Amino acid sequence: MEQDSKAYIQGYIDRARKAQAEFEKMSQEQVDKAVQTVGRVVYENAQFLAEIAVEETGMGNVPDKFAKNKQKAGIVWNNLRGKKSRGILDTDEKTGITRVAKPVGVVAAITPCTNPIVTPMSNSMFALKCGNAIIITPHHKSVKCSTKTVEMINAALAEIGMPENLIQILGEHSRENTRNLISMADVVVATGGAGMVNAAYSSGRPALGVGAGNVQCIIDEGYDFKEAVPKIIKGRSYDNGIICSAEQSVICPKGDFEAVMDEFRKNGAYVVTEEDELEKVRGALFEDGKTNRHSVGQSCQKVAELAGIEIPEDTTVIVAVADGTGLTDSLGGEKMAPVISAYPYENLDDAIRIAAENLEKDGKGHSVSFHSDSEEHIAKVAESLCVSRFVINQCSSNSTGGSYFNGLNPTNTLGCGSWGHNSISENLNYTHLMNVSRVARFMPDNPVPSDEELWG
Questions:
Q1: Catalytic residue among 113, 145, 244, 416
Q2: CATH (domain of 112)
Q3: Are residues 157 and 47 in the same domain?
């Protein structure tokens, strides 16, 4: 069986190398046309692809997936267009170094059921931008919708004369095939659960993986929480809470805590404070210390049904006032549904402590959302917490993965650095799938320091 699997995967690798050999001969303009085409297919078919994703996975909701498909396709292409990624990139006159872009080779991409359309799309756009071929292995719960996406993209690429098999997706899905793919490709990109990411890093190939999300959201003292609360609700409820970059805990000043909770209620939230209801919510979200799969990507109403509590039909999010941080209360960890935990803090140091303890439970290295007008406080939070991204006065779920309104690279794969056991502490971009050769010229006129200048 192992030999059969290896032979099966070798067929994909061989087809990818043949396609890449043809693709490497193409101009920057042709490469960019292919990249644009990948994004355009998802953009123009956003509604259909949203519908089949929800139908197959049973997670999230169509309106948010429709918006995600359109927005992510647009912003990724906008970030890639016009950037040189083939041949000579530039020459630094000061150092005499000329940089030459080269493909990394065949890319293997593990993609999740939580983002079964836009993750294959963006990974393919990054790979093609640098002249690589890519082979995708989707989550078993999203095989049909991810495969349909790739088929539609390939049909469009064929129409513009691109080589066949530049983008492939496994037709037979098993752990054995995935294991062999990631050990036989040249580079691995892993977006999904910890098990798959760890497998990617153990594959013997260079790997780019991501860590768990558990975004801590802090509202600064004196900040207008009426501005912050709608953004937090939008982020926590987006696609029924399955986005790894969505707000997970709201940490707000003790003196404003009740007013903040009232503001949540005014914006459609159901606030849980009684211990018996809190325990029921915990039971709906977690089972034996792990995420309850029946709650993942479900609506507030479904979570309430699982918990055995009654909430209004128009509830936007469930706010659970936690008993403690993630070190003692599971509500401080990552929740894959539209439920957010709430904490009052005494001062900013206390807020940082709460966030840090929750991040020790889940999400260290990922992201923090901070609503503040104080540059001094922004600097303090940024220096104190071990995450790769701090988004300021923004809806986290729509900004940590890149936005038209911030400078983060648009992506669906968010590296968490060594804190999250990842190789990168930034958003995956096309440059991570590019080898760069450096031409070093002899510079006889460079100044050479004396021993006195060096050592004093």
A1: 244
A2: 3.40.605.10
A3: yes
Containing domain of residue 130, as a range? 2-210+428-439
The pair of structure tokens assigned to 3 is 């030999």
Give the C-alpha separation, 207 to 124, whole Å. 16
Same domain for 220 and 201, yes or no, is no
The pTM score is 0.95
Indicate the DSSP class of residue 241: G
- Per the CB < 8 A criterion, the answer to whether 380 and 220 are in contact is no
- Residue 228: how many other CB atoms lie within 10 Å: 24
Closest CA to 333 of 215, 205, 159: 215
Say yes or no: 284 and 381 in one domain: yes
The confidence score (pLDDT) of residue 309 equals 96
Split into its structural domains, the chain has a count of: 2
Q: What is the pLDDT of residues 251-309, one digit of tens each?
A: 999 999 999 999 999 999 999 999 999 999 999 999 988 899 999 999 999 999 999 99
Which DSSP helix (H) or strand (E) runs through 365? strand 365-371
Q: Is the pLDDT of residue 356 over 80?
A: yes
244 belongs to the catalytic site = yes
